[in-house]
Specification:
Number of helices of chain B: 10
CATH class of the largest domain in chain A: Alpha Beta
Number of strands of chain A: 19
Number of helices of chain A: 23
Oligomer: heterodimer
Structural class of chain B: mainly alpha
Largest sheet of chain A: 6 strands, mixed
Number of strands of chain B: 2
Helix content of chain A: 25-40%
Number of domains of chain B: 2
Distance between the termini of chain A: 48 Å
Largest interface: A-B, 70 and 53 residues
Distance between the termini of chain B: 56 Å
Structural class of chain A: alpha/beta
CATH topology of the largest domain in chain A: Rossmann fold
Strand order of the largest sheet of chain A: 5-6-7-3-8-9
Radius of gyration of chain B: 24 Å
Radius of gyration of chain A: 25 Å
CATH superfamily of the largest domain in chain A: P-loop containing nucleotide triphosphate hydrolases
Amino acid sequence: MNPIIEFKDFTFKYRAQMEPTLKNINLKIYPGEKILIVGPSGSGKSTLSNCINGLVPFSYKGDITGELRIKDQDPAALGIFGLSKIVGTVLQDTDGQFIGLTVAEDIAFALENNLIPQDVMKERVSQVAETVEITSLLQHAPSEMSGGQKQRVSMAGVMVGDEEILLFDEPLANLDPATGKRAIALIDQIKKQEQKTILIIEHRLEDALYRDMGRIILVADGQIQADMTPDELMCTNILETHGIREPLYVTALKHAGCTLQAKDKPGNIDTLDFTPYKEAVQNWFSKVEIPTPTTSHKEVLKVEHVDFSYIEGKPILSDIDFSIYQGEMVAIAGKNGAGKTTLSNLICGFIKPTAGNIYLNGDDIAPLSIKERGERIGLVMQNPNQMISKTMIFEEVALGLTVRGVSQEEIERRVNNTLKICGLYPFRNWPISALSFGQKKRVTIASILVMEPEILILDEPTAGQDYKHYTEIMEFLKQIHEEKGITIIMITHDMHLMLEYTNRTIVIADGQMLSINTPAAILTDEALTEKAYLKKTSLYDMAIGCDISDPPAFVDRFISYERGLR
Amino acid sequence: MGTKLLTYEKKDTWIDALCGVTKLVFFLCWSITSMMTYDTRILALMLVLSLIIFKVSKTRWDQVGTVFKFILFFLCINVIAIFLFSPNQGSIIYGSSTPIFTLTSRYVVTIEQLFYELNIILKYFTIVPSVFIFIVTTNPSEFAASLNRIGISYNIGYSISLALRYIPDVQDDFRKIKNAQMARGIEMSDKGKFMDRIKHTAAIIFPLVFTSMGRIDTISNAMELRGFGKHKKRTWYMARKLQRNDYIVLIVSILFMVVALGITYADGSRFYNPFL
């Protein structure tokens, strides 16, 4: 059988760059394969996929040496439009790539461009809509749909054209864990039903491996570092070396001193045979000590029986009731659209509760204006571009103080101090445009910290970040949390974040607060995770697999062991 | 969140069932006629017709009411301004002057002036309902296809569609950014000084532009990857075939325009003069 995609000594350099982004790539992909491409940010994995769909070199120009054949043809001769008939691409931003005014039009978009007659088009659209189960949504506008539904539309939009290769660019970004799991299952189903070749680019390795994957290709520094089955890959240390997060159960097995064997199928928790490792894991479990947590009892934020609705009788949030104590790091988690952002908007005062009260250090904050609350509760938005309005770093960080008429010396002192804490002091006179995404994020955090708020709220602080940047941002937050004793609330659906960095998690689903508890307790509760569209952690399954009677305790020990290693 | 102003709503009427292109042609003919003619008899007929069409289209008052009041306000200003700036316009047009009462030596209210201004009011009242009907009965998805049908490049039609698609998203971004900047202490209320307010608006506009540029980048890649611009033509999922009713409306619209303008210009003047 001939490979459907073949790279031979392929090198690519972007026009604006000195060094090639892809170096000497040799890769064969055969029809019907299902392949996962992983790699840290900037490794070249996106460039690799853009070479396959034609964005490189047709939209992003550069120099190519070596050879690339797609379906035995030269991409340069096919052009981006020729390639679009062979390769269907689902981009990462499911909202941004929604082109049509309604679902049906969006699915039909490629057909319209290919001059397919309307009657054929209508039939194809309804067939594909059925495959991805969105038939009832065909007349809906994008604003009426959830992230998971939009992603199904994107998938339908590429399946409709009969392309043989489907390319998914980070399909799990921005999806809650349960929806992500369903997306992976759907991709698997499409592959089986339609005999397509599937390429998935993703750095959430554990979630992507939820269904079988033929091979994993690890790209780092512009080169292919590994090309093997998931089972083989889990037995190596390559992932760790290149800054990719291993599945938690694999990390836990390694902590317990086990040497993994490919024959035990460690590529997926459901296939992994724990028998040879059971004893080592049990031993390790009994040895690890848990430090007793020191908790403060000073209530910083008290949300008391809060309801919120736009229209009477249709509550968005009902009876939300919890307290957060001085110096806690708390996550708010739950399915997309469950009301997490509404809750943070209520706390910040952008909207007013229909019933109930919110207290900050014992004072009812209802009379405070948005501006006054902003001095005590800082909000950092998900996308730093949504906050940055100045060109220079110093000015941006100083903005909140400047508009409050703080004296020049005071501004200088506080901004410099904050920049030092945030590791941005050396860059203080740089234009913001020269910074990376992670550094911009720091600037936005610094611009809030400078006002010395009592609480910091972050909306999805690590969304779309690879493990290295995730760790960087989170360790930074942990550091300011420890140094300044500030209380941090994070809206997230990253379960690793909850486990590793928060002491409690508030779970919200369909406008109700289901629980507030330790992340270990929440992520080992099957009924709760299902209801809130979370996913139980693989450590739970591992504990069960190893006959450990108290899975939450196992998870707790794993986390404290991990924290000890950092 | 309740009824949205001036947005398409599906209704079970024969007007709703017409093709977008038919409505567009009707709307163009109707507006051209109304703009060109000052023939009171024709304007009066058009007023009666547009009220009938408004009723038949089942357009509800809450879909258009607020905007209608707004337009009414402008109409009043317009009518007063005409009187203030050219109180004798009516006499000049109709060639006679029949004073009713005198305000000052310059401002004499004449029957001719009142009649002239009545024509202006009639024009508003003939065009406005047709604009409302066009907007609330034309599915925006079909609009691009309709423009393409009457010979306008699909690139232009699609740009309009995309704008409609992204308006809610940009509004959403705007609200989020505004909230976050207000929390940082940027005053958006009327309190601050004028220059400060301009500066503060920049604090929303810049992030909004940068966020939107990101969107444009994504959407243009997404469109290209799905073959947009590959051929000179494209087909439309939402395009509708012209039916019997469409042909009737098209013919009637064009005939109406020709006859109306014919009657208007028959005596060589755009104005109908009852004072002769």
